[in-house]
Structures are given as structure tokens and as C-alpha cells.
């Protein structure tokens, strides 16, 4: 079970992340899990040995603001969210346009989103 979770709204993301940057938290990663009607997003931060996880949910068609104004390195996990899950990221400064990790051999544009695989007729199987 994930500990040190702060539930926020998507609308509070930038303000909260700005506070964490000001308090010298490091961005560790951003993860997404598909849930009914959309995605559950968790932004993982650390300050020293203390972790803090910001969690919120979005609908499939909702857009999430990029946190790159505060953590420029976020362009990497934000491109992963976009390419793997089809999550829309607003104001992404470096957009690899589905070429960051994927290739022409990838059977669907968003391989980790079962809804995308189902729509393309491609079956997603666990390894």
C-alpha cells in the first residue's frame, strides 16, 4: 500500500507542485493506472528520505497541465503518460509526438490503455 499520499484535485496540481519545488522536493516519477472512466495519476516526490505522493483522478478526455515550469525533467514521464496511456498533457514543452518510446512496430498508439487496444482490435496480453 502506498503511504504518504495527499489527495488533490487536478486543478490544484500546479499550485501544489510549485510549493513542493519551493520546499526542495525532488520529482521521482509519475504513474498512471486506468480506472473506470479514466485514470488515477500519482506524482511521486521526495525530500531527503521522505516521500510524498500526490494523487488525483481524471476522465479519459481531461487534460492535465504540465509541471515542467517547476520540474523541467517532468517532460520525460509526461511524454510516457501521453504515449503509453493517451493522457493529454497541456503545455508540454518537448513533445515527442508518439515517438519518445514507441516505434512503428507498436501495434496500438497507447499500448497500456486497454480501451485503446480494444478499439484497435488488438488483444493486450500480460507477459
Structure report:
- With 127 residues, the chain is an alpha/beta fold.
- The chain has one domain: NADH:ubiquinone oxidoreductase Nqo5 subunit (Beta Polymerase, domain 2, 2-Layer Sandwich), CATH 3.30.460.
- The protein is 22% helix and 31% strand.
- The chain has helices spanning 13-22, 75-85, 114-120, and strands at residues 5-7, 26-35, 38-47, 50-59, 63-65, 88-90.
- The strands form 2 sheets. A 4-stranded mixed beta sheet has the order 1-4-3-2.
- The longest helix is centred in the middle third of the chain and has 11 residues, at 75-85.
- The protein is globular, with a radius of gyration of 15 Å.
- It starts with a strand and ends in a 7-residue tail after the last helix.
- Mean pLDDT is 84; it is low at 122-127.
Summarize this entry quickly.
By secondary structure, the chain is α/β, with parallel strands linked by helices. The chain has helices spanning 13-22, 75-85, 114-120, and strands at 5-7, 26-35, 38-47, 50-59, 63-65, 88-90. Mean pLDDT is 84; it is low at 122-127.
Amino acid at each position: 500500500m502506498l503511504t504518504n499520499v495527499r489527495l488533490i484535485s487536478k486543478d490544484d496540481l500546479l499550485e501544489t507542485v510549485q510549493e513542493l519545488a519551493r520546499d526542495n522536493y525532488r520529482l521521482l516519477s509519475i504513474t498512471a493506472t486506468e480506472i473506470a472512466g479514466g485514470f488515477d495519476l500519482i506524482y511521486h516526490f521526495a525530500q531527503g528520505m521522505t516521500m510524498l505522493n500526490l494523487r488525483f483522478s481524471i476522465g479519459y478526455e481531461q487534460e492535465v497541465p504540465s509541471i515542467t515550469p517547476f520540474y523541467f525533467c517532468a517532460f520525460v514521464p509526461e511524454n510516457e503518460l501521453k504515449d503509453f496511456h493517451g493522457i493529454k498533457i497541456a503545455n508540454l514543452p518537448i513533445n515527442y509526438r508518439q515517438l519518445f518510446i514507441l516505434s512503428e512496430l507498436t501495434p496500438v498508439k497507447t499500448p497500456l490503455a486497454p480501451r485503446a487496444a480494444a478499439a484497435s482490435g488488438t488483444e493486450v496480453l500480460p507477459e
